[in-house]
Design brief:
Layout (H helix, E strand, L loop, with lengths): L4 E2 L4 E2 L3 E2 L13 H4 L6 H22 L8 H10 L8 H8 L16 H7 L2 E3 L17 E5 L5 E2 L10 E7 L4 E4 L1 H20 L5 H22 L25 H6 L4 H6 L8 H7 L2 E3 L18 E5 L5 E3 L7 E8 L4 E5 H20 L5 H22 L25 H6 L4 H6 L8 H7 L3 E2 L7 H6 L3 E4 L6 E4 L7 E9 L2 E6 H22 L1
Antiparallel strand pairs: 1-8, 2-3, 4-5, 5-7, 6-7, 7-8, 9-10, 10-12, 11-12, 12-13, 14-15, 15-17, 16-17, 17-18
Helix pairs in contact: 2-3, 3-4
Length: about 525
């Protein structure tokens, strides 16, 4: 992340999550710094934009997924939770819609949406009739931006010779400050997307694919919910569960059309009453859980495990920001997230996902990365079970959790399998825990590192924004970023608060482990 990024995760709408679990700030600038009196003006503007984008999300949550129709609806929603602003549009305007360094304009008595739009420092791109669920590619879709005649001082660089930057707020909740040329391109693309969403027209092919896979993965989840958690045997079986509330899926033919690529949609006649068999015969996308036999809840690492993807021989051509066109593939993960990724990531994650799904079906070994994520997940669950029986206290060490590993997660429940949860995949390959393993054996031979300790409340440890458990640093694994370029990093599995995920090895070694230890010591002093 660059220094102009301020990323947040938000749950928006009733059915969609902008980011899985927690988005880690490996770099970038947090909201706290943006609020400091001496913070650069562009950071203060980003903070205003972030607050406005959160108001968009909150409005949507209360209005069945609809975005505010205009800036007046947005400001009324943003002011509703502030006693000093509620019912006073002029006061709300001056606090929320005037950028740092700008003088508040003279406002008309009738401060309607049109007047707000003319006098505000920020532009809202939403319009009537748009639903969150209609929108693809949240990470690059601008919902609010700073006026392009009101740039703020940033850093002069070859990329930005003028040194002026413009704040943008995106649908996924993050904000950025960018040079004018980059901002203009994103704003123009986002305006076209929001207009298409409002009218029901098709998006650009790569965006349409993402929007369609969002409907497909919701249908997969709907099938599982209606069938005891079982994944469907084919995508055709999910046809009755395609959401009906969108403009494009209001008819039976529209619901079947989401299983076709944009190119296939242009060339294929869809019957008025399509059947699951028709979908299976014409479906454009690859389904990795074909044949069924696995439960959705048994899929490990659901944020990363792909269930449905654009076929690798049928890519979209997409230009990353400011770059040359590359192959792009829409992927839908088991947690419901849809992402546009490049060929490097797709070719890395699809084979790994097949192994994870086969493990969910048959109990076969997990790939190492998913194995580590599973271990830290179970350690986190064991911590909560331990705290429940020990007046909310955190365990003194990981060995104390031996008896608290959730039995339902174990195939046999035998002592060696319980102990194996505390061993990394590399350690298990060298030697499986003995049949009579116990807490003492885990204390002597376990692989994972616990940064907490005795005498602390688990809730306090879970709330602090640092890693609590991590896998061995001398056993890092290869992970590609889910981006169009697919950059590679060495990572290990971690427990950050209650969330199992992966973290960059360099970040852990350079700053995070020491930061976590200091945070734990501060908690200890407060007790």
């Amino acid at each position: 992340m660059g220094a102009c990024n301020d990323v947040i995760g938000m749950v928006v709408g009733a059915a969609r999550v902008a980011a899985v679990g927690v988005l880690l700030l490996w770099g970038g600038v947090g909201a706290a710094r943006a609020q400091e009196p001496d913070a650069p003006a562009y950071l203060q503007a980003q903070y205003q934009l972030r607050s406005l984008s959160m108001a968009v999300a909150q409005y949507s949550y209360k209005h069945d997924g609809a975005l505010p129709a205009d800036l007046a609806e947005l400001i009324d929603a943003a002011a509703a939770g502030d006693e000093a602003l509620a019912g006073d549009r002029a006061a709300a305007f001056k606090k929320l819609l005037v950028a740092p360094g700008q003088r508040a304009p003279e406002l008309p008595r009738d401060l309607d949406a049109r007047a707000m739009g003319e006098k505000s420092s920020f532009v809202y791109l939403g319009r009537p009739g748009v639903q969150w669920d209609d929108l693809p590619d949240w990470g690059d879709l601008v919902v609010l931006h700073q006026r392009l005649d009101q740039g703020l001082p940033g850093q002069v660089s070859p990329r930005n010779p003028e040194g002026l930057v413009y704040g943008l707020a995106f649908v996924d909740g993050h904000t950025e400050s960018l040079p004018r040329g980059e901002a203009e391109r994103l704003i123009a693309d986002s305006t076209a997307v929001l207009e298409a969403a409002a009218t029901g027209k098709a998006f650009a092919d790569h965006l349409q694919t993402q929007a369609d896979l969002w409907a497909v993965i919701r249908a997969v989840q709907g099938y599982a919910k209606a069938n005891g958690g079982e994944l469907p045997p084919t995508l055709g079986a999910t046809l009755p569960f395609v959401p009906k509330e969108g403009k494009r899926t209001a008819t039976a033919a529209g619901r079947a059309r989401v299983f076709l690529s944009p190119r296939a949609q242009r060339d294929t006649h869809v019957p008025e009453e399509p059947t699951p068999e028709w979908v299976d015969a014409h479906c454009s996308y690859a389904y990795l859980a074909s044949g069924g036999g696995a439960k959705l809840a048994a899929v490990e690492d659901p944020r990363r495990t792909v269930l449905v993807h654009q076929k690798l021989d049928d890519p979209s051509r997409v230009a990353p920001r400011g770059g040359e066109e590359v192959d792009g593939f829409a992927i839908a993960a088991a947690n419901g997230g849809v992402t546009l990724v490049g060929r490097p990531y797709a070719e890395w994650v699809v084979p790994m996902s097949r192994k994870v799904l086969e493990s969910a079906r048959t109990g076969s070994p997990l790939p190492d990365l998913a194995h580590e994520v599973r271990d830290v997940r179970l350690i986190g669950e064991a911590m909560r079970a331990y705290a429940k029986e020990h007046e909310g206290m955190a365990p003194p060490d990981l060995a104390a959790l031996f008896e608290y590993v959730p039995a339902g997660a174990l195939r046999t429940g035998e002592a060696w399998e319980r102990a194996a949860v505390f061993c990394s995949p590399g350690r298990e390959r060298v030697s499986r825990p003995p049949e009579d393993a116990d807490a003492a054996w885990v204390r002597a031979h376990g692989s994972y590192v616990y940064l907490g300790g005795p005498g602390l409340k688990l809730i306090d440890l879970m709330r602090q924004p640092h890693v609590l458990v991590h896998a061995p640093l001398d056993e890092p694994m290869r992970e590609l970023h889910p981006s169009l370029l697919g950059s590679e990093e060495r990572v290990v599995a971690v427990l950050l608060g209650p969330y199992p995920q992966t973290a960059p090895l360099e970040w852990l070694e350079r700053e995070e482990i020491e930061g976590a230890k200091r945070a734990v010591e501060e908690l200890r002093k407060k007790r």
